[in-house]
Specification:
The chain has 100 residues and is an alpha+beta fold. The chain has one domain. It has two helices and six strands; from the N terminus they run βββββαβα.
């Protein structure tokens, strides 16, 4: 799988990486297998957004996606807000209608 960095300046081949991780400053970084060097792939507003994107990368890999484009912080915030609103609506709907 190819990973396109958030600022679209890097394409990284997942198979050439030893790890992808988020650091304390809300950046997603990677380490390379060959030389032990690393690179920054994306910056986010907080660790919660990083966790959301890390899950997105894992799901993309599991689904056999060929290219995973890392989203902007704004896109992540919007997607997280939409998902939270959907979860809220589902639980409210279940409570109103006696669902389990």
């Amino acid at each position: 799988m190819l990973i396109l960095s958030q600022n679209k300046t890097q394409i990284v081949v997942l198979e050439n990486l030893s790890s992808i991780f988020s650091d304390a400053s809300a950046k997603i970084r990677c380490n390379y297998n060959q030389n032990g060097g690393g690179s920054e792939l994306a910056r986010y507003d907080n660790r919660e957004q990083c966790a959301y994107v890390m899950e997105y990368i894992a799901i993309s890999y599991e689904n056999g996606t060929k290219t995973c484009e890392l989203p902007s912080a704004k896109q992540v915030a919007e997607n997280m807000a939409t998902a939270k609103a959907h979860r809220s609506n589902v639980s409210t709907s279940k409570n109103r209608h006696g669902g389990s």
